């Protein structure tokens, strides 16, 4: 059976594969910065801007 | 609220947040020495800041009640909704 897949993903991505890279300990932010940014790990800082949704976002 | 009290409260929030984030990291990296050292240091700073705060401004939690008092200080404000940061 031919399965139709979304064209929004890069080619050759397999179904049902997920991974999480293991985090390493590097420099951390100061407690002041950490509370403001929501994490003390600079590599995990992910500001949230509801207006710019990613390419994978669904909905209207 | 007195600006000194507000500043100390913010410092406690910052240290608490840092301790929790290190806590989460250490849950998956229990042998990471640098994280352990930092956790100890932050935790110590937090304990000291809480002690300082409670001596000057009253308990942050009910268990911060100073022994031997004839008043239950916990009911004294300010409550979280009475503050603006």
Task: Give an overview of the whole structure.
The complex is a heterodimer of chains A (60) and B (85). With 60 residues, chain A is largely without helices or strands. Helix content of chain A is 12%, strand content 0%. With 85 residues, chain B is an all-alpha fold. Chain B starts with a helix and ends in a 28-residue tail after the last helix. Chains A and B meet through α1 of A and α1 and α2 of B.
Order of helices and strands of chain B: HH
Largest interface: A-B, 10 and 16 residues
> Averaged pLDDT of chain B, please?
92
Structural class of chain A: little secondary structure
Number-wise, the strands of chain A total 0
**Outline of chain B, from the CA principal axes?**
elongated
Number of helices of chain A: 1
Share of helix of chain B, binned: 55-70%
H/E element sequence of chain A: H
- Beta fraction of chain B: under 5%
Instruction: Please outline the major beta sheet of chain A.
Output: none
Give the structural class of chain B: mainly alpha
**Global shape of chain A:** flat
- Unreliable stretches covering 5 or more consecutive residues of chain B: none
Residue fraction in strands of chain A: under 5%
- How many domains of chain B? The number is 1
Secondary structure tally: strands of chain B: 0
Rg of chain A over CA atoms, rounded to whole Å, is: 17 Å
The total of helices of chain B stands at 2
